[in-house]
Design brief:
This protein is mostly beta strands. The protein has one domain. Helices cover about 0% and strands about 60% of the residues. It has a 5-stranded antiparallel sheet with strand order 3-4-5-6-7, with no helix packed on it.
Length: about 80
């Protein structure tokens, strides 16, 4: 049984992927100029941990800003910034 499981839906129907403790799971969903990346992995304490990033989309996929890191019972890191106008 997989430690991590993901489902994504697009115009070709759903697709699923499995991840292990060693591989973790990574997904990047994006438009041209903005996107979101989610990384799920096992932390040093053996707990599942999730990191969420705001990205620059397809035009700047490696531009990433960490928004939050959390486990099932604990918000580890959260950045709240005022929206630019």
């Amino acid at each position: 049984m997989a430690r991590f499981y993901a489902v994504i839906q697009g115009n070709r129907g759903p697709a699923t992927r499995m991840g292990s403790i060693a591989s973790g799971m990574y997904a990047h969903v994006r438009g041209w100029d903005t996107g979101a990346a989610v990384e799920v992995y096992v932390n040093d304490e053996g707990n599942d941990e999730v990191a969420i990033y705001k990205t620059g989309g397809s035009n700047r996929p490696h531009q990433a800003e960490l928004l939050a890191v959390f486990t099932a019972n604990h918000l580890i890191n959260h950045t709240s910034q005022k929206e630019s106008e």
